[in-house]
Queue: 2 jobs
Job 1
Amino acid sequence: MAAVNATVLAVPGAAEPPAVFVHGVLSWGTDDRYGFGHQRPLAAHRRLILMDRRGHGDSPDLEGPYRTDYAVDAEDVIALLGDGAHLVGHSYGGVAAMLAASARPDLVRSLCLIQPGALRVAEDEPVVRDMLTRARSSTASLPADLTAADYLRLSTEPLGMPTPPATPQRLRVAWTSMGERPCWDAEIELDPLAAASWPASVIVGDWAGAPAEYRRLAGEPLTAAARVLAERIGAELLTVPGFYPQTQQPDAINDALTTLWAMAS
């Protein structure tokens, strides 16, 4: 397969090892709305590698049964880690980051997971179990004639969220998401993460200010899953205001990342 696109940001003399960022759904690496565009200031001190997952940004489409697949993403992440890197993943990208770190912990220098979509790790939690049931049902019932514009609207409007402008780039990632391999059902081996010597953190929003339906359907299960995951892998759990941490609270997230990376030095 062709390599994925990754935007590299750095200044002369930037600190090493680099940091690899893996974005979530409806986004791409440098996206300001849902991606890691607000983490650009970190490049003043360290080389950043902002990955576009397959079917997103400037990366090629994925051929096969899925338009995007966390297992393939994990392989791409491992390739970007090089001889070793800090690793940051959000949402769907958090699942890919976990799989990559579990498979090659020797290449990871620290791990930060921002509201990762790895729900099966907390399936015993009632609120998580209910979300998994809803998600499995809704994924199986997508209308055959659903358009990317429809999907973009239905992914936001019913939850009380503003629908992003239907730009070609946003419609492409919506089309990709319509055919994704569901990340919330991923089976992830957590033992290598728990045994790793590098520092790890799990970041979640407090969901204050989120539309009530969005908080109920997404916020509560993601919060429960983040808590369980942090406990199981021995990571620090950090809660910040809002519900889209890296875009709503960029200063807090950037400070947390800087602190985490310093701990790994």
Job 2
Amino acid sequence: MSTPPNAYKARQAPWLLIALTTLVAIFMLAPIALSVMTGLVVNYSKGLASGLTTRWLAEVWELYGGTVGASLWIALLCVAGNLLLGVPCAYALARSPSRAARWFEELLTLPVAVPGLASALALILAYGQLSGFRQSFAFILVGHMVFTLPFMVRTVGAAFRKGELRALEEAARSLGASFAQRFLGVLVPAVLPAIVAGSLMVFTLSVGEFNLTWMLHTPLTRTLPVGLADSYASMRIEIGSAYTLVFLIVILPVLWGLQAIGALIEKHHGT
């Protein structure tokens, strides 16, 4: 009995997808693996034959260890600022029927479309004369907030626009719930998975943001990506690669933890 052509094609399709996915994964991960290996060998030109060492990791930590804590704090504060500003803003835009709200939402996304260097230059022109502010990490935090706020607003705003959530809010209103009770007790728990997803996106973007930060930083306010660029430009390639490894060691556990929290919240609150 011959196999139907459609059944044969259906069996082949998964293997083709697996092969394509594997090739793409190798293409994307191979450079990272090579960079990690370079940061652990004694001499890059000789490769693994030169032996393994943690010397370059120690030098990176000695020279740039301060950038790790700075980047994590800025990213966490950026998430907190987005929660305080972005979630209420997303609700206001989702509930507003005016055309001005739509225009404002489009303007809010301009920092994403405009190159980071241009946004940084605008911030320097506007607030650069405030020397205390200009030379602090708060200046970089403001830049990260400007860049990441659209992602939080868009992600959470899409959740607020769901029809069933509007009906749920109206039901709470009809039962006499105040706005604070409706917003904090009904709406926020309902969109919590979207808030977590937006927070994860904001944290990731803030930690890895380079273009805008490069313009806003000073020698005393360097972050992980700025230190990484500096190490690649002025040090041995082994030190730059070791910095990449430090970056991965610091960031990946945090991202995995945030994703686990998001999955747990989504499991209990739904999508």
